[in-house]
Amino acid sequence: MARLGALALFVAVIAALTGFLGACGDSGQAGLTGDVSLPSDFPTGEVPLLDGRLIQATGTKPDGWSLTIQGTATGTNVLDAAVEKLTKSGFTESSRTEAGGTRTVILSSKKGRDTYWVTVGSSPRAAGGPNSVFYQVTLS
């Protein structure tokens, strides 16, 4: 009987913690906060994202995903930080462009049978501020 009481207490604590974490705006990937959630089929295990506040997330696997993340205001270049996170997980940079202050980097990585293409960019005029980055993620 004591074991059932301890088990019930354990289950109650886990349920309370799960509810608390869900209320904190968990977006589906460690390091992301905000009221927006990643699309349910976003490849969180294959495409690492910059830590910060997820302010926009749309898309599906067949059409690709579009995300905007507001990075932390630590003074680091958020675009370089996002690219570094991707390259450390096996992505290869294929091009880099800059026009009118907007900078974009295209990277790819073969994971299993899929090739993930990620365009990550930043703009000083972005709606999320100069510390935000946008991602376009597609599969081929």
Outline:
This protein is an alpha+beta fold. It contains 2 helices and 7 strands. A hairpin with a 2-residue loop joins β5 (102-111) and β6.
Helices and strands in order:
Blueprint: H1 2-23, E1 32-33, E2 52-60, E3 64-71, H2 78-88, E4 92-99, E5 102-111, E6 114-122, E7 132-139
Parallel strand pairs: 1-2
Antiparallel strand pairs: 2-3, 3-7, 4-5, 5-6, 6-7
Please, could you describe this protein's structure?
This is Lipoprotein. It comes from Gordonia crocea. This protein is about 25% helix and about 40% strand. The protein has about 140 residues and is of the alpha+beta class. It has a seven-stranded mixed β-sheet, covered by helices on one side. A hairpin with a 2-residue loop joins strand 5 and strand 6. The longest helix has 22 residues, at about 1-25. The radius of gyration is 18 Å and the shape is globular.
